[in-house]
Amino acid sequence: MPADPRLAPDPSALTLLLVRHGRTRYNEEHRIQGWVDSEITERGMEGVRATAEWLRDARLQAAYASSSGRTLATAEAIVAHHPHVEVVPHDGLRELHFGVFEAQPEERTADRQQWLEVFRGILDGTHPGFPGGESARTYLDRVHGAFDAILQRHGVGDTVLVVSHGMTLTTALARWGSVPPRALGNASVTVVRVRDDGTPDAVLVGHDPSGLGVVGGEQPTAEAEAARREGADDSP
Predict the structure, then answer these.
(1) Which residues is 66 bridged to in the sheet?
(2) Looking at 82, 90, 95, 134, which residue is catalytic?
(3) Are strands 159-164 and 13-20 parallel, antiparallel or unpaired?
C-alpha cells in the first residue's frame, strides 16, 4: 500500500493523480510557455524524480500526458516505476496557446492586474485569446473534453495519472469547484477522487514531494488573488 493513504485506491471512487510538469528553462527565464516547449532543467528533474519516488507505490491503471515534450518527459520518469503502464499522449491536455506571446517574457503580456482579468476570462470562457492563439472557449472545450474522455474510460477503484500544465490543471480543478489557493508548483501532485455519480473531491492540492518549492507554492492563483482583493475592498 502507498505510504500516504491519499494515494491508496478507493473502491468507491476513481482516483486522479494530477501532476504538473517539471520546471523548465522557460520557467526559469520567466517566459510564456504554452504550446512552445523548453527542456526540463537539472533542478526541475530533481523535483520530477522526487515526485516519481513519492508515487512509486501508487497502483496505477493508466497514465495520460499532454503531448508537449516537458509533460511527456515528466510522465515517463514517473511510470518508470510502473512498467506495466504506458503513457498515452493527449493533445487535449496541452496548455493554452498564447499565440504571438509564446516564448516571450511574461511581462510583455500584461501587468499583474490585467492578468487577473485575463485569467478570469479564460476560466469563464469569455477571453477572445491572444493574437495567433486560441480562444478561451476553444481551450476550455478541448481540456474539458480530454478529462471527460478519461473519466468515461476509467471507473471506481482505478488510479490514473494525468501529467499536464499549471493553467490546464487549474482549469480542470476550477470546473470541479476546487480552485487552488496558490499556483500549482512544478512536479506537484494533486489528488482528486471522482465518485460514481461524478462528484469530485480534491483531497490533496499542490503537494511538492521534493520540498524544493521550485515554482508555484508562493504565488497565489489569479482567482485566489482576485477574491483576496475583493475581500479587502469590502473591509472597513
Answers:
(1) 90
(2) 95
(3) parallel
C-alpha 3/C-alpha 192 separation (Å) is 17
Side chain identity at residue 12, one-letter code: S
Q: What are phi and psi of 6, to 5 degrees?
A: -70, -15
The number of angstroms, rounded, from the C-alpha of 140 to the middle of its chain's C-alpha atoms is 14
The cell for 85 is 503502464
121-156 burial by CB neighbour count: b if 16+ within 10 A, else e?
Answer: ebbeeebebbeebbbbeebbebbeebbeebeeebee
Residue stretches of the chain with pLDDT short of 70: 1-2, 109-113, 213-236
Q: What is the pTM of this model?
A: 0.89
Closest CA to 70 of 142, 164, 133: 164
Residue 158 one-letter amino acid: D
Q: Is 84 assigned a catalytic role?
A: no
- Catalytic residue among 21, 82, 154, 207, which? 21
Mind listing the pLDDT tens digit for each residue in 23-60? 999 999 999 999 999 999 999 999 999 999 999 999 99
Helix (H) or strand (E) holding 191: strand 189-195
Distance CA 161, CA 59 (A): 10
In angstroms, what is the C-alpha Rg of the chain? 17
C-alpha cell at 76: 515517463
Helix axis angle for 112-123 and 136-153, nearest 10°, is: 50
